[in-house]
Amino acid sequence: MVLDATKVYMIKRFTTSLANTTMFTTYAIYYITALGLNPFELLLIGMVLELAVLLFESVTGVVADTYSRKLSVIIGMFVIGTGFAMQGIIPALEGMVPFIPVMFWVLLAQVFYGVGDTFVSGADTAWIVDEVGEEKIGTIFMSGKRYALLATLLGIALSVGLSTLAPNLPYLVGGILYLLLGVFLILFMKETTFTRKPREEGASHFKEMATTWLSGAKVIRSQPILFLILLVTLFTGAASEGYDRLWEANLISEIGFPLVGTLSLPMWFGMIAAVSALLSLVAVGIAEKRLDVNNERVVVVGMFVLTGLKIAAVISFALAPSFEWALACLLMIGVIEALSSPLYDTWLNLNIESSVRATILSMMSQSNALGQTAGGPVVGWIGHRLSIRASLVVAGILLTPILVVFGRVLRKR
Question: Per-residue DSSP letters for 67-91?
Fold first, then answer.
């Protein structure tokens, strides 16, 4: 059986989205109610994850551009799968090794997740862009998002069902899905356009990788647009860490859920995620039909508008006086993020040359990790000293420099 690159990419997007949704729809219940983690510990988990990304991202991106994008992606799948499966067996580990605190196992699993993710980020995108061509990437990324949202709907039901049986099961199943995906990619992922750079006589592997990294850094220095993209990823990371880690805690601790029948926390989070995915699916479908997502100006205008809407939605969610208000904001943020992700990927890849694509994408991911590593503890400290609502307001404010960057790009064009 032979699958073309587009089908393999869509299967990968579907499976990773299924695994992630299965784990992350109810992860807050596992972390907060089963493991007893507080808001500061939740932000510490995120900081360790992003620190691992920050330290390893450049190296793994260079591996993809120097040796093989396929090899890098497959390694990442197995490392990520191991990390998530480890989180799934923490209750068993706690019983076998009672003198080691739960937080140690959670943080160790985050290191596996972070390192594995650095092998995938940049490499998978560089692979598909080279295989299908830059002129089609906007359409490919939008279609990939649609497949991911379909998997999200399935993953929500799976997450709620598994979490009801035991709160650690979603992580165990998610880890297994990643491991199986690694096996699938070994069998079906083909690399037809990438050519490994000729190795200089007597050059070590380290020197070969250093040359690739320096080439990527030189490209960023020579192109102002890439520097502006770097700023966008930095502030996106700083803002996202606070929101991603604390929105569930804000609902649980600050706002509360209405009493409706026998609905449990997993069911509430599952319904919120399901409605958000359905709305996002509709929005992405409309964008695919109505917008020329392969046109760079259309992409930048879209990002400018979506960033402004997200700032308003995040701050409004932080100050929400009722559950209904907060729910409307959450759904709006979900739709905005679903549209922003493929538009950002398109904008970024239209401004990168193929030979150093994975390296530069990894540098961008590293910038995002730097923002999360620096911004996460600050947002977490504010939540610890003041309130979770205050942390979320700061997360919204941290997005405002991105609006300025997109405005500047539009004026230049």
Answer: T-HHHHHHHHHHHHHHHHHHHHTHH
- Residues 163-189 pLDDT 10s: 888 888 999 999 999 999 999 999 998
**What's the rounded Cα separation, in Å, for the pair 409 and 405?**
6
For residues 352 and 360, the answer to whether their CB atoms sit within 8 Å is: yes
CB atoms under 10 Å from CB of 411, counted, come to 7
Rounded to the nearest 10°, the torsion over CA 349, 351, 356, 360 is -80
- Stated pTM of the model: 0.74
Q: Classify residue 101 by its DSSP letter.
A: -
Distance of CA 82 to the CA centre of its chain: 18
Q: Which two tokens stand for residue 410?
A: 């539009």
Neighbours of 401 (CB within 10 A): 16
- Beta-carbon neighbour count of residue 292 at 10 Å? 11
Kindly state the DSSP code that residue 198 receives in the 8-state scheme.
P
Two structure tokens written together for 268: 């509430």
| Residue numbers in the chain where pLDDT is lower than 70 | 1-2, 58-65, 95, 97, 194-227, 241, 245, 260-262, 353-359, 362, 373, 375-377, 380-381, 383-384, 412-413
Write b or e for each residue in 360-372: b if 16 or more Cβ atoms lie within 10 A of its Cβ, otherwise e.
bbbbbbbbbbbbb
Q: What tokens does 235 get?
A: 């502030």
DSSP string, 169-183: HHHHHHHHHHHHHHH
CA–CA gap between residue 107 and residue 45 (Å, rounded): 6
Q: Count Cβ neighbours within 10 Å for each residue of 205-231 and write b for 16 or more, e otherwise.
A: eeebbeebbebbeebbeeeebbebbbb
Q: Return the pLDDT at 197.
A: 60
For 239, 250, 297, 400, the CA distances from 393, given in Å and listed in that order, are 10, 12, 30, 12
204 touches 96 (CB < 8 A): no
Nearest to 103 by CA among 119, 90, 112: 90
| Sequence-ordered list of residues with C-beta below 8 angstroms from that of 278, at least 6 positions apart, any chain | 153
What do you get for the CA distance between the two ends of the chain, in Å?
A: 46
What is the pLDDT, as a whole number, of residue 205?
A: 47
Integer CA distances (angstroms), 387 to 44, 152, 240, 324, 382, in order: 17, 31, 17, 20, 7
Would you say 291 and 302 are in contact if contact means Cβ atoms under 8 Å apart?
yes
- 96, burial (CB in 10 Å: exposed 0-12, middle 13-18, buried 19+): exposed
DSSP 291: S
